[in-house]
Every structure is written in structure tokens, then in C-alpha cells.
């Protein structure tokens, strides 16, 4: 096989980057512009030792999954990897990817995987948008005055690029996002506010982050800046407040209202979207979200699941796997604002009440973001759950101390915590090996692993397998329609509950 060669390919899979995958001359070929179900003519663009890259030059037989997404930015904006594929196709691809990773990387022969749980209406589901701001660069005039080169664009990056597509609508986001972005464009123009230019490391506005609590309508606008403040910010606050307040009432009867405006300081060269410092310049420092009977406060830097509908599906799966009776001791690792742990605490409270045995269970969460831990402890109080506590620290460092018992900063002796269940919900990178070893050493009856990356999930399932935990079953949940990401909830159980675990 060589560069420039044309070949006919049957596409039967999709890569993480959204390229179709076919096979020719015993090699996998990653084909831009193709999707599973297509038969295409592809031109080879690069040949590696075991695989090749190609572009589609002709579609001979189109996939039954092919559609035109009704978005003016489809194909340009890098947000929707699956913009050209119908929802049925997206679900099929994601389910197959999870299964394939569990087999290939997890070393499982026939993993029991339930069908992926999709959404009835896979639109307007996102409660958080992170939009880069650009003016195409800045120029410095005589006297050091800096000016924008072009007009203000706020939107999402093009695929594999830092060019910003100016999105005035988005099919995935909640309505407050585009409303707030539009007034920010107007304000930056009328008040000559500069956007950050990474080339010169100058200019003010970097990102607009909007969080929407869909269960209450509360909205938080976070203005990420390369500076200390925004000139004339009271005008901007008024404009944003009016724009959000004028939005149509949600289908569930709830009205949107801007409850929090935060400046996030993120100076100089950095790949992080947000810095560590936040200043509330209007309203409250948190917004309140409602999920069923429960309420959660969310601060600017805290993680919260981006799809509230599927979040409930996911957490109900955790509860189904946990089968709580009311007396369990649960560790909720990577706990964010405490949502999973508090769902479990509430389920234990109900189970204990129904069985007349009372609620003797306990939840202990560990999370590295301080703001999220403060939210989590407040959320326990807000929901009247006295048996849940949350600690700040890196899970891999705190877990061994929690299991062994320790003396805290105030000099109190904290006894060892012997868990019946450990819940793991790490970021995409998965769990540190030492955390998995400590998890197995604690020998809980069950481990429930919630993951947003099937590859690291499979890797960690394999490690836990060697440490004495067998894969029972898993369920993929589509948290992120139109994108390549998929969430999975997996149940593992102790192979031999009475013995201590083997070491790696
Ligand atoms: C995928 S989120 C899950 C949050 C929560 N379980 C939920 O459902 O909303 C992962 C969380 O882990 C936190 N985190 C990242 N690395 C960590 C570490 N080494 N130790 C503890 N927490 C960490 C992040 O701040 C984030 O809140």
C-alpha cells in the first residue's frame, strides 16, 4: 500500500476521532469522511507500519446511518463528531466501542454488556458550555494601546484547531448559552473590550463558561479573563440578566434567571480553560440544581455531570448495582459535588426506613477540587443527610489513610473506614494504579466503576481483575449525543470475599 493509491473499502467501525475504519491488504485504514455502513473509494494519504490513513473520494453505497444534521455549523464546528450520523447509528457505534475495549484492553472474553441507554430527545441536553472568545488577534498601537484585529467570535473550536467558529445557535446547549454569548459579543464591540491573543499573550477575554441548572432555571455566567477585572462590568451584567430573563419558559414550566456572575482569573500562557481564582461580581457564588427530590449547590470550578437527564439514568444504574439495604459503608471516590454519594445516602435512608432498621449506613467521599468538596458537604446538609461526609485531597493519597485510620488536622483520631462498596468515578485518565491496589486491599464486596472513557475503564477493569475483582456486568449510558464520548457504569464483585486480595 502506498500514498496516493485508491482502494474500495467497506467501512465497519469508527475511530475515537470520528474517522471510518475499513480494512485493505490486512491493514486497518482510517478514512476521513466515511462512517460504518459506507462502501467508499478512498485515497491513501499516509501509510504506517500496521495501519494507514485515507480520505473518501467517492461514496459508492451510503451508510443507512447517514443524515444531514440541521445545524449551520455541522462539519465546521468540532463539537459534534457524529454530526453526519443518525442517533441510532451513534448508539450502535458507542455500544460496540465499549464492548470492543472491554474485550481487547480489558481481557474479558464475553463481557455481559447491557444495551446502551440513549435519550428520547437527544437535543439541548447540555447544562454547561465552555466557549472560547477570539477577535482574530490583537494589534498594539503607539503608546501601548491594544486593539482587536477583527470582530468578536464566540463559539466552539474547529476540529483539531484553535480557530473559533462563531456559533449563534447550538442544538446541544441549553438556551441561556447562546443568549449570554450574543450580549457578550455586543458588549465587547460597544465597549472596545479586547479578546486574549495567545501569540502576544495580551488581550482580556478568554472564555465564556455558562452553567445552567435545568431543574431550577438558575444560570451562572463565568467570564474567564487574562486580567483582574472587566471595565464597565455592571453594564454587561445588566445586559446578560435581561437576555436570560427574556428567554421562553422551559417545557417543564421553569423560568431561566441569571443568579451568578463570576470572573475567573486565568493569566498568561496556559492550556487550562479556567484558572484557580474566582470572584463573584453579581448574585450568588453558586447555583442550585434540583434532581427529583434532591438539591445540589454547584460552584464555578466544581464538576457536575453535563447531561441532567442521563445523569439520573446513570445514578439509578449505580443504585441498581449497589442494592443498598441501609447499613452499608460506602466510599465515593472522585465525588465532585457529592451527587453519587448523596444519591446512595438517600437510598440507604429510604431502605432503612422501609425495613424499619433505621439508617446506619455511612458515605465518605474524596475529591481534589476544594470548591466541589465545600459544595458536597453543604449538599449533604441541604438534603438532610447526616451520614455523608466529603474530604478534600487526591483519592490515591487519601484512600490509604482513610482505610488505615489517621489523626486529622484538628488532632481528632479518625478510625479506619471499612467499606462494603467503593464507587470510582475518575476523569478520562482513569484511576492511578496505587488507588486500584488500595481499593482491592480494602476488600469491599462490590466496586462500581463509572467511566467516561471506555479505554481507561477497560485497562482498570483488567487491573482490578488481577487484584481479585471479577467483572459482573456493565451498562453504557449515552451522556453525550452527537459527540464521540460515552459513559459506562460497571459492577465488579470480590471473587473470594473471605480472603485478602493478591498483589499485582
Ligand atoms: C468524572 S468527575 C465525577 C464527579 C462525580 N462523581 C459526579 O458524578 O458528578 C471526576 C471528578 O474527579 C475529580 N478528580 C480528578 N482527579 C482527582 C484525584 N486524583 N483525586 C480525587 N478527585 C479527583 C475531579 O475534580 C472531578 O470532580
TrEMBL record:
The keyword Isomerase does not apply. Its EC number is 2.1.1.190. The active site is at residue 452. Pfam families: TRAM (PF01938), tRNA_U5-meth_tr (PF05958). It is an enzyme of class 2 (transferase). GO terms for biological process: rRNA base methylation. PROSITE patterns: SAM_MT_RNA_M5U, TRAM, TRMA_1. S-adenosyl-L-methionine binds at residues 305, 334, 367, 425. Residues 1-58 form the TRAM domain. InterPro entries: MeTrfase_TrmA_AS, NA-bd_OB-fold, SAM-dependent_MTases_sf, TRAM_dom, U5_MeTrfase_fam. Belongs to the class I-like SAM-binding methyltransferase superfamily. RNA M5U methyltransferase family. This is 23S rRNA (Uracil(1939)-C(5))-methyltransferase RlmD. The gene is rlmD.
Amino acid at each position: 500500500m502506498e500514498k496516493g493509491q485508491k482502494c474500495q473499502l467497506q467501512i465497519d467501525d469508527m475511530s475515537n476521532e470520528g474517522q471510518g475504519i475499513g480494512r485493505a491488504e490486512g491493514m486497518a485504514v482510517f478514512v476521513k469522511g466515511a462512517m460504518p455502513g459506507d462502501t467508499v473509494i478512498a485515497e491513501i494519504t499516509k501509510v504506517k507500519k500496521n495501519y494507514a490513513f485515507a480520505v473518501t473520494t467517492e461514496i459508492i453505497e451510503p451508510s443507512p446511518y447517514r443524515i444531514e444534521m440541521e445545524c449551520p455549523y455541522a462539519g465546521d464546528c468540532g463539537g459534534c463528531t457524529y454530526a453526519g450520523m443518525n442517533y441510532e447509528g451513534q448508539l450502535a457505534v458507542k455500544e460496540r466501542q465499549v464492548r470492543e475495549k472491554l474485550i481487547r484492553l480489558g481481557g474479558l472474553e464475553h463481557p455481559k454488556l447491557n444495551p446502551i441507554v440513549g435519550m428520547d430527545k437527544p437535543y439541548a441536553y447540555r447544562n454547561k458550555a465552555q466557549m472560547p472568545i477570539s477577535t482574530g488577534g490583537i494589534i498594539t498601537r503607539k503608546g501601548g494601546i491594544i486593539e482587536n484585529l477583527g470582530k468578536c467570535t464566540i463559539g466552539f473550536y474547529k476540529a483539531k484547531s484553535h480557530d473559533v467558529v462563531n456559533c449563534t445557535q447550538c442544538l446541544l446547549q441549553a438556551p441561556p448559552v447562546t443568549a449570554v454569548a450574543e450580549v457578550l459579543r455586543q458588549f465587547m464591540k460597544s465597549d472596545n473590550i479586547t479578546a486574549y491573543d495567545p501569540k502576544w499573550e495580551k488581550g482580556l477575554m478568554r472564555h465564556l463558561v455558562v452553567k445552567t441548572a435545568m431543574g431550577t432555571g438558575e444560570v451562572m455566567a463565568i467570564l474567564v479573563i487574562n486580567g483582574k477585572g472587566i471595565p464597565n462590568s455592571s453594564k454587561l451584567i445588566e445586559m446578560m440578566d435581561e437576555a436570560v430573563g427574556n428567554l421562553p419558559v422551559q417545557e417543564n414550566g421553569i423560568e431561566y434567571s441569571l443568579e451568578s456572575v463570576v470572573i475567573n482569573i486565568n493569566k498568561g500562557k496556559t492550556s487550562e480553560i479556567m484558572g484557580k481564582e474566582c470572584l463573584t461580581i453579581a448574585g450568588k457564588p453558586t447555583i442550585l440544581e434540583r434532581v427529583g427530590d434532591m438539591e445540589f449547590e454547584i460552584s464555578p470550578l466544581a464538576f457536575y455531570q453535563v447531561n441532567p437527564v442521563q445523569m439520573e439514568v446513570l445514578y439509578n444504574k449505580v443504585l441498581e448495582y449497589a442494592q443498598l439495604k441501609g447499613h452499608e459503608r460506602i466510599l465515593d471516590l472522585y465525588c465532585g459535588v457529592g451527587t453519587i454519594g448523596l444519591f446512595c445516602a438517600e437510598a440507604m435512608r429510604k431502605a432503612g426506613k422501609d425495613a424499619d432498621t433505621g439508617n446506619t449506613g455511612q458515605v465518605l467521599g474524596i475529591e481534589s477540587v476544594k470548591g466541589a468538596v465545600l459544595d458536597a458537604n453543604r449538599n449533604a446538609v441541604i438534603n438532610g443527610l447526616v451520614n455523608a461526609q466529603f474530604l478534600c485531597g487526591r483519592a490515591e493519597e487519601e484512600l490509604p489513610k482513610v482505610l488505615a485510620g489517621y489523626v486529622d488536622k484538628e488532632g481528632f483520631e479518625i478510625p479506619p473506614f471499612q467499606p462494603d462498596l467503593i464507587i470510582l468515578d475518575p476523569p478520562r485518565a482513569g484511576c492511578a494504579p496505587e488507588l486500584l491496589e488500595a481499593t482491592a486491599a480494602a476488600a469491599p464486596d462490590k466496586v462500581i466503576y463509572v467511566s467516561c472513557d471506555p479505554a481507561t475503564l477497560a485497562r482498570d477493569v483488567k487491573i482490578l481483575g488481577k487484584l481479585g475483582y471479577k467483572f459482573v456486568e456493565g451498562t453504557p449510558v449515552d451522556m453525550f449525543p452527537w459527540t464521540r464520548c460515552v459513559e459506562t457504569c460497571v459492577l465488579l464483585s470480590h471473587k473470594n470475599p473471605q480472603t485478602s486480595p493478591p498483589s499485582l
